[in-house]
Design brief:
Keywords: Coiled coil. Pfam families: CT398_CC, Zn_ribbon_9. This is C4-type zinc ribbon domain-containing protein. It comes from Streptomyces triculaminicus. The chain is mainly α. It has two domains: 84 residues, no CATH class; 146 residues, Orthogonal Bundle (Helix Hairpins). It is 76% helix and 5% strand. It has five helices and four strands; from the N terminus they run ααααββαββ. Strand 3 and strand 4 form a beta hairpin. Helix 2 packs antiparallel against helix 3. The chain starts with a helix and ends in a 6-residue tail after the last strand.
Length: 247
C-alpha cells in the first residue's frame, strides 16, 4: 500500500487520539466511586434486611401484646363477676361458696401470670422498637453516603464524557483527512494489536512493540519509497517514518 508521507504522519495523530479515548474509557470504568457505591449498596441491603426483620419482630410483639392484654382483661372480668357473686353469697351453699373462693384465687394467680407475660412481651417490643429506630438511622446514614457517592460519580462521568465527545470530534476531523484505504488498514491492525495500529519509528526502534529493528530490516525501510506504507516485521503494525527515525 502507498500513502503520502503526510497522511502517514497523520496516522500518529489519529493513534494518539485513539489511545486517549481508550484511556478515558478505562478511567470512566475505573472510577473509585463505582467500587464505593457497590460496597455501600451492599451495606444498605444488609441494613434494610435487618430493619425489615426488626420491624417484623416489633409487629409480632404488638400482636402478641394485644392478645395477652385481652387474655388479662377476660380473666379480670371473670374474676370481678365471681367476686361479686362471692360478696353477695345469695342462693349459694357453703360448698358453692368454697368452690367460688378457690376459683377467685385461681383467677387471681392466672391474672398475675398473664400480666407477667404482658410485661415480658412489652419489654421485647420496646427492645424491637429501639432496634427499629437504630436501624432506621443506619439506613438513612448509608443511603446518604450512597447518594453522595452517586453524585460524585455522575459528576466525574459527565466530565469524562465531555472530554470523550471532544476527542471523538477531533478524531473524526483527523480521520477525514486520511485516505480511506489507509484508515481501513489502520483500524484492522489496531483491533488486532491491542488498540495500536500505527507506531512511530524512533531511533531505529518501533514504538509499538518497543523492539529495535535489525540491520536487514533497517535497510529495507531505508530502501522503501517515501510513500510506501512500511510494516514492522515484529508486530506488523504500520511503521511511520519521521526525521527522528534514525535512518
Amino acid at each position: 500500500m502507498n500513502a503520502a508521507p503526510a497522511d502517514q504522519i497523520r496516522l500518529l495523530d489519529l493513534q494518539a487520539l485513539d489511545v486517549r479515548l481508550t484511556q478515558l474509557a478505562h478511567k470512566r470504568k475505573s472510577l473509585p466511586e463505582h467500587a464505593e457505591i457497590t460496597s455501600l449498596e451492599g451495606d444498605l441491603t444488609q441494613h434494610r434486611d435487618l430493619l425489615v426483620a426488626a420491624q417484623t419482630e416489633e409487629s409480632d410483639c404488638a400482636r402478641e401484646q394485644t392478645k395477652a392484654e385481652q387474655d388479662v382483661d377476660q380473666v379480670r372480668q371473670r374474676a370481678a363477676r365471681d367476686q361479686q357473686r362471692l360478696d353477695s353469697g345469695a342462693g349459694m351453699s357453703p360448698k358453692d361458696l368454697e368452690n367460688l373462693q378457690h376459683e377467685v384465687a385461681s383467677l387471681a394467680k392466672r391474672q398475675g401470670d398473664l400480666e407477667d407475660v404482658v410485661l415480658e412481651v412489652m419489654e421485647r417490643r420496646e427492645a424491637a422498637q429501639e432496634r427499629v429506630t437504630e436501624l432506621t438511622g443506619r439506613v438513612s446514614s448509608v443511603q446518604a453516603k450512597v447518594d453522595d457517592a452517586v453524585t460524585r460519580r455522575d459528576a466525574a462521568t459527565a466530565e469524562i464524557d465531555a472530554e470523550i465527545a471532544g476527542v471523538t470530534k477531533e478524531r473524526e476531523i483527523v480521520a477525514a483527512s486520511i485516505p480511506a484505504d489507509l484508515i481501513k488498514l489502520y483500524d484492522k491492525l489496531r483491533t488486532q494489536s491491542g488498540g495500536v495500529g500505527a507506531a512511530r519509528l524512533y531511533q531505529r526502534r518501533c514504538e509499538g512493540c518497543r523492539l529495535e529493528l535489525n540491520i536487514t530490516e533497517l535497510n529495507e525501510v531505508r530502501a522503501a519509497a517515501a510513500d510506501t506504507v512500511v510494516r514492522c516485521e515484529n508486530c506488523r503494525r504500520i511503521l511511520v517514518r519521521t526525521p527522528e527515525s534514525g535512518l
